[in-house]
Each structure stands twice: as C-alpha cells, then as structure tokens.
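Below is how a single chain appears once it has passed through the pipeline. First comes the sequence as given, then the structure the pipeline wrote out for it. We keep one example in the README because the format questions we get most often are answered faster by looking than by reading.
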Amino acid sequence: MTNWNGTILGPPHSTHENRIYSLTIICDESYPDKPPSVKFISKINLPCVGPSGQVLVDQFDTLKNWKRSYTMETVLLELRKCMAAPANKKLPQPAEGSTY
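Resulting structure:
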C-alpha cells in the first residue's frame, strides 16, 4: 500500500468552503521514517503548494518536521488547518473543479 488517494473538505468561513480537494499520497520504502510525497490533484492556491500541485516539504511544517508517529490523517488534517489559517483563508482560488 504505497499509493493513496486523499480528500479534504474545505474548511467553513474560507474561500475553500463547500469545495472538495483531491490529493495523491505516495509512501515509498522509507515511510514512516520519512514523510510521504503529497500532491494536490485539485488546483489550489496555498503558500505550501507548488505550481504543479506538489506540497512543498520546506513550506509545510508537518512534512518538514516529520515524526514517525504521524499518519496520512495527520497530513490531511494539517493541510486543512493551513487552508483555514487567517493568512490563507481569503486567498483567491482557481475555478472549482480545475485540476493539475
């Protein structure tokens, strides 16, 4: 089980509200000692997401400061928190339904 599909429901009271975001999560042989690779399929505008949808390890604390005890649920919940952060919750977003 190395390839996973993830889903995040946009947090309320943000530009993400009522949106569903799809992601791919890939765990290689070094998981859980090293973080998985996380990429959005749904287009999103967040500081921790690169131009091709890849979650940038150096911009996302959960991956940057990875702990063996973290799970894929941890990653998804922390991304949702990032979406709801005051600095990010009003960022303009690509059209709903657009993908990378």
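The beta strands are 3-9, 20-26, 37-40.

See the next section for the split statistics.
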